[in-house]
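Lab meeting, item 3. Inverse folding demo.
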């Protein structure tokens, strides 16, 4: 079938199972081909082809509402709702978003990117539906990984209590990004192998009706028998005990099985959970065989061999540098313990995990728990490191404030994917952490200019008690600087002058320092001498150096890949203001007050004006008239 001709899912209503099989094949071929060019979340999408087709056949989107948890597995839904023709632009600048997007389609009723939000949102929609007196079906689709998130569990508690009509699809592929972990996953494992509960339950209810009613006592006894049988037949009745009818397990690649369970769910009252078993990567051998999560969010690949097409990189990724440094340090310091909320693969912690399986805790998608767990470890004189993506750190804000910083505990946060991340877009940009961490008492924040300085920062943070420390590191690879020298501690709270200059000062940190240095070089050619300062400690700032600038009265530009409101530049302004240096002329460059969509980081930097050219323009404008005139000559 020509998938690009699909306008909406109506055509599916009349499809036979054979036709659905053929369409599932075409969709898989389409995805494998399109994603081979620029990558994307292929494995999760290949796993939900039959499920998505059946949902769109049996329900009426957009009246009935599908809420895709995380949202990374909504590609098939996008194809069926008329967006196949845009797949060449998937996750590209100004192109199709990699997650559901309300502005893209009326069928995208809920946006996500972060996990475990679908059940709460579905509950909100179900309450609204009942208050308005309408009758649509609300259908959150949540993975076994996302189910480990605290929000999902909070929502289940409420859903079971309220008893609103809702069909929860639990898409269980035994995988988070890597193999799923935790006691809930173990419980699902037992359910996977148990018999089909809904059939057993129907038989039981039939049997009960046949028992003649001899008053309340017999009825009560019959209920008890039913409960006992339920316990005997189902190894875990977690959902039923919460008041949510459990149906399944269902073969998520079998149209008949899927349809019969979903039809049953459709006519059920109250909340129902349909436990669907799928295989991540289904239909593409290299992705099916993936046991570590390499095909979760894949880059471009060769279709025939399944080999990834990677640009030749001479430098290690920043994540790898942190992972390796922690492994090295942990050899000498047995107090170092690493906590990862489901991101062992992305943050390159497999080496640490292999070397110290007892000292790495993958806690599943549980950023809040990860943070307070680390706080607990710190109270017991351990050296916990929470390896966390900047964007997911947002989930743990209260735990950082209340549990870690308030008690001034020695917890190190290695804040991965800090700054713009690119193709994942606005849900994932790591641009808020400086603003939200800077305001918390006791928290220190650093970012290295290159991979060597990053390594030195990890050493610095762990060499003696420092209170809470956050070390930011960007997505991607280092600059390729030599790592031959032994790592060393950096004097806490100090900045570094990278280039001398007396007309003005550019203050920045991390990869953007390269742009600053290039700008300074080009400014020199027009007679402007710009000092470039590596403001590697975002907090505490190097006040002695700020005082020098104030004394010299030279204009200052601050540059950061973070939001301007409350960011590093704000900190510099606050300092000058607080110290009474009202004469200081400061221009802050950073991320404006809006969400930044997907695209290559380079394109996004251009969009927000964080380029060498823009720095040069802003520098020239900031300088006093006399210096500007000198530059024009
Ligand atoms: C709050 C949060 N933490 C971490 C992630 C990173 N992440 C994205 S998908 C994923 C695994 C989700 O597993 P599951 O829900 O089972 O979906 P699957 O990929 O198996 O289809 C993780 C950990 C996230 N998106 N949101
Ligand atoms: C959907 C999600 O949250 C992750 O899969 C994320 O896309 C991973 O990002 P990285 O590719 O930066 O590890
Ligand atoms: Mg999963």
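The presenter then showed the designed sequence:
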């Amino acid at each position: 079938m020509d998938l690009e001709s699909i306008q909406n899912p109506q055509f599916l209503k009349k499809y036979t199972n054979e036709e659905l099989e053929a369409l599932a094949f075409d969709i898989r071929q389409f995805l494998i081909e399109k994603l081979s060019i620029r990558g994307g979340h292929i494995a999760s999408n290949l796993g939900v082809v039959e499920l998505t087709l059946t949902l769109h056949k049996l329900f009426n989107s957009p009246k009935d509402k599908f809420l895709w948890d995380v949202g990374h597995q909504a590609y098939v839904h996008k194809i069926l709702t008329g967006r196949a023709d845009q797949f060449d632009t998937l996750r590209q600048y100004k192109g199709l978003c990699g997650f559901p997007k309300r502005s893209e389609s009326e069928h995208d009723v809920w946006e996500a990117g972060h996990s475990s939000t679908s059940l709460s949102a579905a509950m909100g929609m179900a309450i609204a539906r009942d208050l308005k007196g309408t009758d649509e079906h609300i259908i959150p689709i949540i993975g076994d990984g996302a189910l480990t998130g605290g929000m999902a569990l909070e929502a289940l508690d409420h859903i079971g209590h309220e008893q609103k009509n809702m069909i929860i699809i639990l898409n269980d592929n035994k995988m988070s990004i890597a193999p799923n972990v935790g006691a809930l996953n173990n419980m699902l494992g037992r359910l996977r192998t148990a018999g089909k509960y809904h059939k057993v339950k129907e038989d039981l209810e039939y049997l009960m009706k046949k028992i003649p009613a001899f008053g309340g006592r017999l009825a009560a006894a019959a209920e008890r028998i039913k409960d006992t049988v339920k316990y005997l037949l189902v190894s875990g009745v977690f959902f039923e005990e919460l008041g949510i009818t459990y149906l399944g397990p269902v073969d998520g690649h079998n149209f008949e099985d899927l349809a019969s369970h979903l039809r049953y769910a459709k006519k059920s009252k109250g909340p129902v959970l349909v436990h669907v078993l799928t295989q991540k990567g289904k239909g593409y051998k290299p992705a099916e065989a993936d046991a570590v999560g390499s095909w979760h969010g894949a880059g471009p690949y060769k279709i025939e061999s399944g080999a990834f097409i990677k640009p030749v990189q001479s430098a290690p990724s920043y994540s790898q540098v942190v992972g390796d440094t922690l492994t090295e340090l942990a050899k000498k310091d047995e107090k170092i313990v690493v906590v990862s909320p489901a991101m062992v693969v992305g943050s390159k912690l497999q080496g640490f995990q292999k070397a110290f399986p007892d000292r790495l805790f993958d806690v599943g998608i549980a950023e809040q728990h990860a943070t307070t767990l680390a706080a607990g470890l710190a109270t017991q004189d351990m050296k916990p490191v929470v390896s966390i993506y900047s964007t997911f750190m947002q989930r743990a804000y209260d735990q950082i404030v209340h549990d870690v910083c308030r008690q001034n505990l020695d917890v190190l946060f290695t804040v991965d994917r800090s700054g713009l991340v690119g193709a994942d877009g606005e849900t994932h940009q790591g641009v808020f952490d400086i603003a939200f961490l800077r305001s918390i008492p006791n928290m220190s924040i650093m970012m290295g200019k290159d991979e060597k300085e990053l390594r030195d920062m990890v050493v610095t943070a762990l060499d003696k008690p420092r209170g809470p420390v956050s070390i930011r590191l960007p997505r991607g690879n280092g600059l390729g600087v030599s790592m031959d020298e032994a790592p060393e501690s950096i004097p806490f709270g100090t900045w570094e002058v990278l280039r001398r200059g007396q007309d003005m000062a550019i203050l920045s940190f991390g990869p953007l320092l390269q742009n600053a240095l290039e700008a300074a070089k080009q400014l020199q050619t027009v007679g402007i001498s710009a000092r470039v300062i590596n403001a590697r400690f975002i907090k505490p700032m190097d006040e002695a150096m700020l005082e020098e600038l104030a004394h010299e009265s030279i204009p200052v530009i601050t540059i950061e890949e973070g939001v301007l409101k409350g960011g590093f530049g704000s900190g510099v302004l606050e300092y000058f203001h607080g110290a009474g240096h009202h004469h200081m002329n400061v221009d802050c460059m950073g991320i404006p007050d809006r969400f930044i969509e997907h695209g290559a980081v380079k394109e996004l930097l251009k969009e927000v004006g964080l380029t060498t050219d823009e720095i040069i323009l802003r520098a020239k404008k900031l300088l006093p008239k006399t210096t500007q005139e000198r530059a024009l000559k």
